[in-house]
Amino acid sequence: MTTPSPARILLADDHALVRRGVRLILDNEPDLTVVAEASDGAEAIEQARATSPDLAILDIAMPRLTGLQAARELSRLSPDLRILILTMHDNEQFFFEALKVGASGYVLKSVADRDLVEACRAAMRGEPFLYHGAVSALIRNYLDRAHDGDDPPDRPITVREEEILKLVAEGHSTKEIASMLVISAKTVERHRANLLQKLGLRDRVELTRYAIRAGLIEP
């Protein structure tokens, strides 16, 4: 009987030590193998294109593109790719955002040694993986929505505005952002002005604070 090939995994985290530790956990399993690593969300997309993994494990807080932004793009590029979010944040907002962008699981780094292998196998079977707190959050959210009789409001900013907000908060200049996103400097300025108006903010400092609260960058 032929042994099935191990699941090919892309691992993205901006901390090399975290990647090394997670890789040790995964490569120790006969049905899992890490075939590519990335240090930020944009590199994760590049590596996914180059290596065609079965599963992507993405940290939430990464430079250039967050794990959630990368997950949204990877879901669009490769609908069959399974995605897990790996994070230190036990945060309901991040958890629900992860589900919205196509992730099939949300794993806390604090218990990765216990949960990650199980989460990978669940994802490869096409099943969701939810840690205990996430199950409680889902039930609470469902009950709140049922009580209010409506759906939560749409996100206040567009995907492109979110990309620009993150890069502004990371300290990139208008020219740098235009180059990274392959758009004109005028377009960057227009999006930045729209962000300030939509969010009721005054300057880059307030945009940065908002980006921290939204989980786009770490403080």
From TrEMBL:
The modification 4-aspartylphosphate is found at D59. Coiled coil: none annotated. Pfam families: GerE (PF00196), Response_reg (PF00072). Keywords: DNA-binding, Phosphoprotein, Transcription, Transcription regulation. GO terms for biological process: phosphorelay signal transduction system; regulation of DNA-templated transcription. Gene3D superfamilies: 3.40.50.2300. CDD domains: LuxR_C_like (cd06170), REC_NarL-like (cd17535). The keyword GTP-binding does not apply. Residues 150-215 form the HTH luxR-type domain. Residues 8-124 form the Response regulatory domain. It comes from the Bacteria. GO terms for molecular function: DNA binding. PANTHER family: TRANSCRIPTIONAL REGULATORY PROTEIN NARL-RELATED, TWO-COMPONENT RESPONSE REGULATOR. This is DNA-binding response regulator.
